[in-house]
Specification:
This protein has 2 domains: 83 residues, PH-domain like (Roll); 75 residues. Helices cover 54% and strands 22% of the residues. The protein is elongated and about 75 Å long. The termini are far apart. The longest helix has 35 residues. By secondary structure, it is α+β, with helices and mostly antiparallel strands.
Length: 219
């Protein structure tokens, strides 16, 4: 056997060389395409968002005028208490100074009217002063509320002088109570926490849709 034939025979008898590392890596099972899965989730969320009706948006300026509108009912109550209290106090003093007008027991009745009248007058004046103080405070730091009313919840973004200072989200079932008076939808999240919505900032169709969303669910 020639030398060349012998070399060929030896080369055919040797085992095949190991495959390169890159080929071995290619042969491994493919890893899950996490990027594709992640991309699929926003697509599903976008489809769900497309099914949800567009939110009803409006803005409320929280200045002194708005605070006065919110406290209009309290102002009426304060004026009523003050007037009734002043009248009762005046009659009480009259009965005390002129007992002959009331006959027997006029002194006791006079004191009763004077005390009750004084208390009513004090309550009325205090209520009016507190309202005046809140109106002045609101006028000094004017803020705005940006509302977005969705199907089952709403968001409120508050800004002061154009700079956002906070944002909150409430479900309609979280509301403490709802009042509609003096051209305002007052959304109470607590007994003393109210988010006012000016109905004049909404079209009739938007206002009707908003009332429907705010309406309590039927049993």
């Amino acid at each position: 056997m020639s030398e060349e034939q012998k070399n060929r025979h030896d080369a055919q008898a040797q085992p095949a060389a190991a495959a390169p590392p890159t080929a071995a890596a290619d042969a491994q099972p493919a890893e899950p395409n996490t990027t594709a899965a992640a991309d699929a989730q926003p697509a599903e969320q976008n489809e769900q968002a497309a099914d949800e009706p567009s939110p009803i948006r409006c803005t409320a300026v929280l200045d002194g005028k708005m605070q006065a509108r919110i406290g209009r009912e309290n102002r009426s109550t304060g004026i009523l208490f003050a007037v009734l209290g002043a009248a009762a106090l005046a009659f009480g003093i009259l009965f005390l100074t002129l007992p002959a007008l009331g006959g027997k027991g006029a002194s006791f009745f006079g004191w009763l009217l004077a005390v009750l009248g004084g208390l009513l007058l004090l309550c009325g004046v205090t209520l009016l002063l507190l309202l005046l103080r809140s109106v002045r405070a609101a006028g000094k730091q004017v803020m705005t509320n940006e509302y977005a009313f969705y199907e089952n919840y709403f968001t409120v973004t508050t800004a002061r002088r154009g700079e956002e200072i906070g944002s909150v989200r409430f479900g309609y079932t979280d509301l403490y109570k709802i009042k509609e008076k003096y051209g305002l939808l007052q959304l109470f999240t607590a007994p003393n926490v109210v988010y006012p919505v000016d109905t004049a900032a909404l079209s009739p169709e938007e206002l009707a849709a908003l009332r429907e969303r705010l309406a309590p669910p039927q049993p």
